[in-house]
Automatic annotation (TrEMBL):
One of its GO terms (molecular function) is oxidoreductase activity. It is an enzyme of class 1 (oxidoreductase). Keywords: Flavoprotein, FMN, Monooxygenase, Oxidoreductase. It comes from Xanthobacter oligotrophicus. Residues 49-362 form the Luciferase-like domain. This is LLM class flavin-dependent oxidoreductase. InterPro entries: Luciferase-like_dom (IPR011251), Luciferase-like_sf (IPR036661), SsuD_RutA_monooxygenase (IPR050172). Its EC number is 1.-.-.-. The keyword Ribosomal protein does not apply.
Length: 393
């Protein structure tokens, strides 16, 4: 059953529904005007993919301090992964929930966008819960909060919640229904009812207030599959992509332009704009020799993969974005933990970021191996050069 609401609302749902990019004064539109958006891809879990020493911590205080520094420096975005794994499934000590942690950071920051990862099909979440919590975070952050939409690719995570893993493409069909209902709850000015076609829930006279500031919260999708890209083209503002070529920068630069062009064309066919973001790991020192020595030291500490090593390779996964990545035409990546590896002096880092921009990337979510000191080095040496190069306003 469905309560259609007013004509104005009826025209404002589905793939053409208004989102934050449709409001010139939204925080997302402000960030999107940067030539290259900058962000942090936080580690809210205790990751040990190399034995090389770091100061890293999964704790809220450590990561909140990084985000506050990024906010002060004018960075645009922060977010982190969330995983649901059994005992022994994490690399180390603990893992915070991104949905809660990034939302909590809204009260201690001013301008940076805060994106909370949420496995939207686990539980399952009821759309009224997501709509109400989302609108609350939206108001605390004044429109700076959003959801990184994850459908769940590991069987073991679905099973933890009492499910068998749902077929890959069907997950995106279920998620599309969920976000069409969320859009109605975030915008309708009357009660709204919906009988789930694919999802095991229904809404009867649902209503939430306050409404989000800019149509709905910011929506991000991390995907590389056809079904995922189709979903993102119709619903998301930012698409967190994977380099089809592999981690080596030359492979990425060769394969990204066609991949990005296809993504943006698919969104334009639906009358929408989608921004692409990617997460490089930056390994930089003042000299090229020092930078490559640091990268080799990290790589030398990477242990042989096990089911509990970073990436959790022993768990069955149907993720498609990382399949077929191939560095065979170029030097191999070193396995430093990023989607793309950027290694070199500050000047060389800027050159590689400029090349990513030329390939079609709209924003980068930085990983650093030793997050706090490496971020300090980037801020002091590289950020001013990005401004000089015209990559930052």
């Amino acid at each position: 059953m469905s309560n259609a609401g007013s004509t104005a609302v009826r025209q404002n749902i589905g793939p053409v529904a208004r989102g934050p990019l449709d409001f010139p004064d939204s925080p997302l539109s402000r960030s999107a005007r940067q030539p290259l958006m900058l962000g942090l891809f936080l580690n809210l879990q205790d990751i040990h993919f190399s034995d090389h020493p770091t100061t890293n911590s999964w704790t809220y205080d450590y990561n909140a301090a990084l985000v506050q520094k990024a906010d002060a420096l004018g960075f645009d975005i922060a977010f982190s992964r969330t995983q649901w794994l059994p005992k022994g499934g994490y690399d180390g000590e603990a893992s915070l929930d991104s949905f809660v942690a990034l939302g909590a950071m809204a009260a201690t920051t001013k301008n940076i966008l805060l994106i909370s990862t949420l496995h939207v099909l686990y539980g399952p979440w009821h759309p009224l819960h997501i709509a109400k919590i989302g609108a609350t975070f939206d108001h605390i952050s004044k429109g700076r909060w959003g959801i990184n939409i994850v459908t769940g690719h590991r069987a073991i995570e679905h099973e933890m919640f009492g499910w068998n893993r749902i077929d890959h493409d069907r997950r995106y069909e279920m998620t599309a229904e969920l976000f069409e209902v969320l859009q109605r709850l975030w915008t309708d000015t009357e009660n709204y009812s919906h009988e789930g076609r694919l999802n095991p829930w229904k809404v009867v006279n649902g209503y939430i207030t306050p409404k989000p500031n800019y149509g709905r919260p910011i929506l991000v999708t991390a995907t590389g599959s056809e079904a995922g890209i189709d979903f993102a083209a119709g619903h998301s503002d930012l698409l967190f992509i994977t380099s089809p070529g592999g981690a080596h920068i030359d492979s990425a630069l060769e394969t990204l332009p066609a991949h990005i062009a296809a993504i943006k064309a698919r969104a334009r066919a639906r009358g929408r704009e989608v921004k692409t973001i990617i997460n490089p790991v930056v390994v930089s020192r003042d000299t090229e020799t020092e930078a490559h020595a640091y990268a080799r030291a990290i790589a030398a500490g990477v242990p042989a993969p096990t089911h509990t090593s970073f990436g959790h390779r022993g768990y069955d996964s149907d993720a498609q974005a990382w399949k077929g990545r191939n560095d065979s035409k170029h030097k191999q990546g070193l396995g430093l933990g990023g989607n793309i590896e950027i290694i070199g002096t500050p000047e060389q880092v800027v050159e590689q970021l400029a090349a990513l921009k030329a390939a079609g990337i709209d924003g980068v979510q930085f990983n650093f191996y030793d997050f706090a000191p490496d971020f300090d080095h980037f801020a002091e040496t590289t950020l001013p050069l990005l401004k000089q190069a015209g990559l930052r306003l």
